[in-house]
Design brief:
single chain, about 160 residues, mainly beta, OB fold (Dihydrolipoamide Acetyltransferase, E2P), 2 domains, five-stranded mixed β-barrel, three-stranded antiparallel beta sheet, 1 helix, binds zinc ion
Length: about 160
């Protein structure tokens, strides 16, 4: 099955994936999602930069906040499972100083998270789409806990 990112240009899909940001060439501030270049101006109020370069963000960050998505999000969210299975969302602070929201990796839930815990970006299947060329896997970035909080429950 072919795998393509659900959102083009927001993350890389190599074995060690990373989120892709726009970096202002004037002040060095990084922005995610990488939409700064499209608007043509820097969102840093003290900067009049107008040119941006693509930059890979750190693959690891720390949990800043998290929540349980108990209810099915509205469209354009496409449920990966039917019936809907709740998933955890984490807001992760990266060393670059920005906070990026994302789902928590397959197999992990809120019980595996705590504020300040280290997580790593992974790319996983969001859903499978039926196209004229057959099923296509759409991928998305997710946050995977590095050291699960419930270490005693991890099966070797
Ligand atoms: Zn700037």
């Amino acid at each position: 099955m072919t795998a393509t990112p659900a959102i083009e240009g927001w993350f890389t899909t190599d074995p060690e994936p990373a989120l892709t940001a726009d970096r202002c060439t004037t002040c060095g501030t990084v922005f995610f999602p990488p939409t700064a270049a499209a608007t043509g101006f820097c969102r840093n109020p003290g900067c009049d930069g107008e040119t941006f370069e693509s930059a890979s963000l750190s693959r690891r960050g720390t949990v800043w906040s998290y929540t349980d998505a108990q209810y099915r999000p509205p469209a354009p969210y496409v449920p990966a499972t039917d019936p809907y299975e709740p998933f955890a969302l984490a807001a992760v602070e990266l060393p670059e100083g920005l906070v990026v929201l994302g789902q928590v990796a397959e197999g992990f839930g809120v019980a595996d998270l705590r504020v300040g815990a280290e997580v790593e970006v992974v790319v996983e299947t969001l859903h499978v789409e039926q196209t004229d060329d057959g099923p296509v896997e759409r991928t998305i970035w997710r946050w995977r806990p590095i050291a699960p909080a419930r270490a005693e429950e991890v099966v070797a």
